[in-house]
Amino acid sequence: MSTARLAPKDIDPIVALTSSSILQHFGGAVASLIAIVMTIVHWHEVVSPFAAVLAVLLVNVAAIAATLAARPSRAPFTPERLWIVVVFALGAAVAEYLSTVGNDRYVYDDFGPLVVGVLMISLAPYCSWATLLSSGALSTAVLAVLVAGAGGPAWHGLPVLVMVLFYVAPTVVASSAAAGYSWAIVHITLAWQRKANQVLLQRDAELRAGLAHADDHGRVAVIRREVLPFLASMLNVDRISVADAARARQLAEALRSTLREEEASTWLADVAGDLERRRGIPIEVVETDTAVANLRDDQRAALTALLTWLASEQRVASIRAQVRREDTESPRGRAVRISVDAPFGAEPPNRRSIERLASVARAVGLSAEVAVTGENVTVEFRHVIG
User: Fold this and answer.
1) In angstroms, rounded to a whole number, what is the distance separating the alpha carbons of residues 101 and 105?
2) Reported confidence tier of residue 25, pLDDT bands at 50, 70, 90
3) Residues 299-338: pLDDT tens digits?
4) Helical pair 297-310 and 351-363, crossing angle rounded to 10 deg
5) Is 288 exposed, middle or buried (0-12, 13-18, 19+ CB in 10 A)?
6) CA pseudo-torsion sign 248, 250, 254, 259
7) Could you give the percent of the chain with pLDDT greater than 70?
């Protein structure tokens, strides 16, 4: 996927979740406060109270729309939601213009361009830099046309271009800052991921070459612990005995069996096996559908984080993860449900902590439901594989 289409929340959902609280408690409130205060400040210029009140109401609608659109429960955030917020904000700017038309002495006390910019900055963690720039350019064009013929007496003698640039400056600066923020976060995070992948690939190369002494498993274990020593011993013999031939057949069958198992396994089974070895918690994976192989990296990370967290600190006694296809299929692809069931351990988790992990999954496009009883916890993810 091109970086022009990536938003910070696509590659770092934790940042998006953190930013959502800032948006809910700051972004929308600031936009509404600006509209109310600036309307009071230039009330003596208002010729249509109805239009002035409508402008403030539209700002509040835009703020509420932005807050609801960024909630984790409504993930994933789409570019269309940004356009809806921008349209409401531009509608407020038009209503404000109509409320003071013919009597707007100064344009610096108009809140329209500033409100549009504040809301775009609030939604920057959820939008790509290309989307922010395009919406900023469209907003600037609309505002420029709106104010071109609205200059009051104080602006007589100045070029129209100067007045337009002065009026749209808040929107231009804010949209540029939002796009710059989105671009920087995406590129910095991708650079870190590339570096981390290089380390993992180097580690994998060492395991395959037998240089690393971690707990090998699967194909590497068969080759490193059995096949290579057997081949080394055969270099010094003159004749191959019947026992040697039988041993070679056994190793060949073991290697073929390992290859078949690894080919049939998925990343979820690999994660479960690794956690079971490291944490000592029995983990069973039942896959009647291989759809989890098509999950994106951020969705895999969210599911892995839940399994790792449950398997730590004696929170649960065991884990059972089941992947199955739902009876009904979505027009966009088959619907798959991933169920994670775990009986409580010595230190059972609380529902609030599990809900936080479920919110991370929702932020990356997985529909998550949490059920907690007195003895176990169940987390179900639903996803449509296109």
Assistant:
1) 10
2) low
3) 888 888 888 889 888 889 999 998 887 766 555 567 788 8
4) 170
5) exposed
6) positive
7) 72
Inter-residue contact 380 to 369 (CB < 8 Å) = yes
Mean pLDDT of 237-264: 64
Residue 376: φ, ψ to 5°: -150, 170
The answer to whether residue 14 scores a pLDDT higher than 60 is no
Specify whether the backbone of 218 is left (phi greater than 0), alpha (psi in -120 to 50) or beta: left
Q: For the sheet with 367-372, list strands across it.
A: 283-287, 319-325, 334-343, 376-385, 367-372
**Cα–Cα distance between 336 and 323 in angstroms, integer?**
7
CB proximity list for 66: less than 8 A, separation 6 or greater: 23, 27, 28, 85, 119, 122, 123
- Report the alpha-carbon distance of residue 288 to residue 149 in Å, rounded: 66
